[in-house]
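Lab channel / #folding
Pinned by the channel admin:
"Please post every new chain as: sequence first, then the structure tokens as a reply. Keep commentary short and put observations after the output so the thread stays searchable."

First post following the new format, from NK:
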Amino acid sequence: MNIAVPHRPDTRAETRLAELARRARSDLAMLDYATRPWVLPRQWNGQTIPDVVIIGAGQSGLVLGHALKRRGVGNILLLDRNPEGYEGVWETYARNYEIRSPKTITGSDLGIPSLSIQSWFVARHGQEAWDAIDRVPRVDWMNYLRWYRDIADLPIRNGVNVVDVDYDPDGVTLTTAEGETIRTRYLVLATGMEGGGDWVVPDAIRDALPDHMYNHSCEVYDADRLRGKDVGILGAGASAFDSSVAALDAGARRVDTFMRRAQIGLLDLVREFETGGYLNHSHELSDQTKWELGTFLTGLSQAPAEHHFNKALSFSNFKFWNGAPWQAVAYEDGKAVITTPRGTFRLDHVIAATGVTVDLTIRPELRRLAGDALLWRDRFTPPDGDMSAGRLKLPYLDRDYRLQQREPGAAPGIERLFIFNALATLSMGGLSAVSISGHRFGVPRIATGITRALFLEQEDQLIPTLREFDTPSIQLTPYARAMLGMDD
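Reply from TO:
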């Protein structure tokens, strides 16, 4: 008879992590110069309001919040709709075993080695384990972010869903799903890949199949319900292979993955962009080059993650179909009937790995922006003159990730909003806050933009504040006071 052995925590790892936390806090204290608060408080309805609110406490919001705190802007608030410890994608809908970025990536550490993923991983698993991997396992990355949150010690409120964003010359007003009003001086949207629209399921699937028959690859769903089923996946990118492996691991009877292109892409050009030149200066490229770069990347099939590509192909009940666009989708006798140039398939469930759409109007908190913000279509005409491209709906941001008014004077206050999600991609030259690789250079740039705005906003108070300063740098003894003729 097998006896279950209760799980015992790795006390040695816990000891090492505790020591790393102590060292990280010591390093932060050692580099404490110029981190004391300096922003003059602002009142609204008799209450002091946050200087900055960040919507999204996943990796981008978390690192930006910490960077602001390290610059003396501590009166901030982070809001996230997910429960504590489940911010972002990593333990909600992500299904990849490893993150796509190489393990050597930096940025969240803010240049402090004890805050790096390498320091955390070695403390948790040991040096040999670190040496053995090329990329960090997804669950480990999320656990690192949980540890990082504890070290950063930021004011974060979970379970808060913002449904409206309004702005005026003096600030930004947020309304939550519960009807709460939150006023702030500046707002950052750090809401990830879907932060400017939503995951898109093709109309052919939505119109033909009942809701229970399909999911988007980036939805939260229980893969175990695919056990024993024939599953079809539309798409050939990373999320398609992640979904394929999840279904196969769950015990799907068969998984067929379909791609309209003739050949699968095997290039991972994002790694080629990870240089100090590109990451630091791509936002300064001309609009023409940014557009051509976006066109090039859109036309290039991005390689799936290698580990899930190989794992999917290791299953005998997996089949990949290239040159197989879905020509028709029908619902017959409880099955999804998919017609392709390579045959007709009868499936029990369909997963659309079909990316995200940009549409500010479908996100309630962004609807006001849709009519007020300067968009790419307002400033740029593609070389072919085709104004129907979806990328033209992206906001045209300044170098600090900040929104601009479409009509000067028509939407005062919109410049108080900073976009640190996928909506920034075109304006920043291809990579934005969504990519971990964008943090090393992107976080300091947006942090500088925010602190610059806060500092210049109180320029008229600089001299009066200095005049009120009356703390002497020398504590005079009675003898010194007498010598200087300062006796009462």
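NK: The radius of gyration is 26 Å.
TO: also worth noting, The CA atoms of residues 235 and 373 lie 32 Å apart.
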